[in-house]
Amino acid sequence: MKKIITIFGATGNLMYKKLFPAFSNLFKNRFLDSKTKIYLVGRKDYTLEDYLLEAKKEIKTNIEWDLLLPQLNYIQMDFSNSDDYIRLKTIINDDFTEKDKMFYLAVPPQLFPVISKGINSSGLITKGSDNERIVFEKPFGEDLTTAQKINKELWQYFEEKQIYRIDHYLGKEMIQNILIVRFTNTIFEQAWNNKTISSIQIIAKETEGVLRRGNYYDKVGALKDMVQSHLLQMVSLVTMERPKSFASDDIKDEKVKVIKQLSIDKKDIILGQYQGYKDAINIESNSATETFVFAKACINNDRWKGVPIYLLTGKSLDEKRSEIIINFKNDSSDFKNVLNNKLIIRVAPVEGVNFIFNVKEAGLSEKVVPANLDYCHTCNYLGNTPEAYEKLLLDLFNKQNSLFTRWDEIESSWKVIDEVKTYKHELFIYNNYEEIKELIVKGNEGLIDDL
Ligand code: BG6
Question: What is the pTM of this model?
Fold first, then answer.
């Protein structure tokens, strides 16, 4: 069967930075072939040549243009004009008779309803059809109320099984690995609670600033751009109870339960904005948007009572690093210099797992020193491990939605963010990461490592 994917928002950053490289690899590695067509939809009146000229200025990675070009088409549309959807339908229908159709909305959430309505009313997607699916980029909504409104409208047009809400962190190799590391290793599973674990750190640091995404980012900020989705997804996978089975819905049930038990106290949040943010393109001159968040969350259940869950994310910081760190308690009073055990799940840029434990120093010394068991996830794999978007696009093509977010996951995470948004916080302007780190450490004694 022929496959057609239509991407709304094809002139955006996501298309250039993530989707083109992902498609390129999928064609190169023959997961997709010439039976796949990609329709690029934008509001600008381009020919395909004009579009590619612009795109190539923005794309920073190697793309297999020879493979991709014959599959591409550019279509200009006014998203609010119903005639344009009919025109799109004619183009798509003329192309192939029997087809599998996917629509990818890489646009701000405010546009989800109008585009969904256009797609449905024109008959591009029929509610319930197995061969017609629609993908929504994050953030899904701007808060709980808008997300609920959007979702209600989507359910008029599509069945839940046709809806794919993306959170690309779920497509990352090491995020998919969290449950395996936790639940297939008795040594960790037995220790996964407040008797043995002293704290958890969930980190997603970036060196880049807002780049040319001011239009989007200034309305959103780090809490909605990163915490509501990627960080809370990581928290839920790390802290959920063992599911009834490892079927997608059973896992999601447990993830939702634990996010409902998560709370963040007003005093446990630091919001920051990097110096120079307001000078970036399309940022309000008096913007109070946060580009940095540090928060201490608690999970109010028997397993996690008393274990702080530290969340840290921000732009324009000292390094690009996404990591989950499990700090174990240290109750050995018989030896000096004993460090706490630590399990580090490295998500990016390095993919792997480290386990830090204590050993005797080599030689005549009796000193206790830390040793590091270092598992490199990519080292045994020939070639590069697939990028998150590659995995998720392939799952979409294969009608596999387990790594996409279910509605109640979105709902529960917005509740957390909405609550935090009601707090009034001073915005700390940072020149460099050291300045915020100092602030964090001051309020959280003992939390110096690995930040
Ligand atoms: C996106 C955010 O979802 O994730 C971006 O919108 C952020 O602001 C990006 O830069 C980080 O993803 P990754 O895969 O580079 O860690």
Answer: 0.95
